[in-house]
Amino acid sequence: MRVIGIDPGVATTGYGVVDKRGSGLTSVASGAVRTHAGTPAAERLLQLRSALAALLSEHRPDIFVIERLFFNANVRTAMAVGQAAGVALLCAAEAGLETRHYTPLEVKLSVVGVGRASKAQVQAMVAALLKLPTVPQPADAADACALAICHLNRSGLASAVARAEHAR
Question: In 3-state terms, what secondary structure has residue 10?
Fold first, then answer.
């Protein structure tokens, strides 16, 4: 199974493509799509759409995973991230991909085993689980890889539960 994780943002959108074969995880690609702050918002969103569509076409994931947005303070940031998330979801829909959403708490629990894990702990576990010599850069790429790993961990558990229920 191939999963693409997306950590949305207008200035920087992280992505991580992770394969699962058997019990092993492999990093296929990670990085970030960046847009320039001086560019009009609509053009930045179009640039993001083009880059994400190209990534989906190149890597052909089986499922699209994105962070479930939660903001309690900065409305301006929330709007920009929401716009980027909307563009990302549009790209997933255009590619015919099933989408899943996970909160930061769910990702931390799945990847590190602790819901209050630090960003550094999540990044270290991403590198360890994917057997990488260094943490994916920028941090948004590591977060996107963590989203993909979270889904692969949780989907395995969901499949096991479904098989057990079917066997009854």
Answer: coil
